[in-house]
């Protein structure tokens, strides 16, 4: 960072000196694929029986087109939708990417997370999944149907606490540095402050 940026924004957080490491990558629980796979098998079986067995050629074409359309709607699109939802947890943040045709990305810094909540319905308990809610200020980020929900929630809680402890130690070290109290006085006077050029 340049000296101009540091004079306006302050020094970079100390956590930036440590490399960001990917801790977890996951998608929604795989049980969401059971119905699409069963639908594809049923449609393939029905199409194999009916296509070619009908008396007119146009009926066979209509049955084949109907089978392909049903396979796309009930089997292929749900699988692609499942593949399009992905969550990455690093040592600094949680990143959720979703969307099949239009992509959406949500990101929250673990340093801003104040509480990790987990919820498990009956079906989720059977499959070992759960929903995790990360509260940061008045907002929240919900991770739906996380495989191994309890373990992931515990890992997020531990990462959140480590980030908080690390930032508290760094702030304490910065406050104890000689000249730390005089640093704000060396800032640019308000009447001389102008637009900052980053180039």
Structure summary:
Helix content is 43%, strand content 22%. The chain has helices at 3-9, 34-50, 57-84, 122-127, 149-176, and strands at 22-26, 86-90, 93-98, 104-109, 115-119, 129-136, 139-147.
Write up this protein.
Keywords: Membrane, Transmembrane, Transmembrane helix. It comes from Leucobacter muris. InterPro entries: YdbS-like_PH. This is PH domain-containing protein. With 199 residues, the protein is α+β, with helices and mostly antiparallel strands. It has 2 domains: 117 residues, PH-domain like (Roll); 55 residues. It is 43% helix and 22% strand. The protein has 5 helices and 7 strands. The strands form 2 sheets. It has a 4-stranded antiparallel beta sheet. Strands 5-6-7 form a 3-stranded antiparallel beta sheet. Helix 2 runs antiparallel to helix 3. The longest helix has 28 residues. The chain is elongated, with a radius of gyration of 26 Å. The C terminus is likely disordered.
């Amino acid at each position: 960072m340049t000296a101009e940026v540091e004079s306006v924004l302050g020094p970079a957080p100390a956590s930036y000196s440590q490399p960001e490491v990917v801790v977890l990558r996951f998608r929604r629980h795989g049980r969401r694929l059971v119905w699409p796979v069963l639908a594809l098998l049923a449609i393939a079986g029905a199409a194999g029986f009916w296509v070619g067995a009908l008396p007119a050629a146009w009926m066979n074409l209509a049955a084949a087109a109907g089978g392909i359309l049903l396979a796309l709607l009930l089997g292929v699109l749900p699988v692609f939708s499942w593949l399009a939802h992905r969550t990455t947890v690093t040592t600094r943040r949680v990143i959720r990417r979703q969307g099949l045709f239009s992509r959406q990305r949500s990101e929250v810094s673990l340093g801003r997370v104040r509480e990790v909540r987990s919820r498990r319905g009956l079906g989720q308990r059977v499959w070992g999944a759960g929903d995790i809610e990360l509260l940061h200020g008045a907002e929240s980020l919900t991770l739906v149907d996380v495989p191994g929900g309890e373990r992931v929630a515990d890992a997020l809680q531990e990462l959140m606490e480590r980030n908080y402890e690390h930032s508290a130690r760094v702030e304490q070290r910065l406050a104890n540095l000689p000249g730390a109290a005089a640093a704000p006085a060396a800032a640019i006077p308000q009447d001389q402050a102008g637009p900052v050029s980053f180039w």
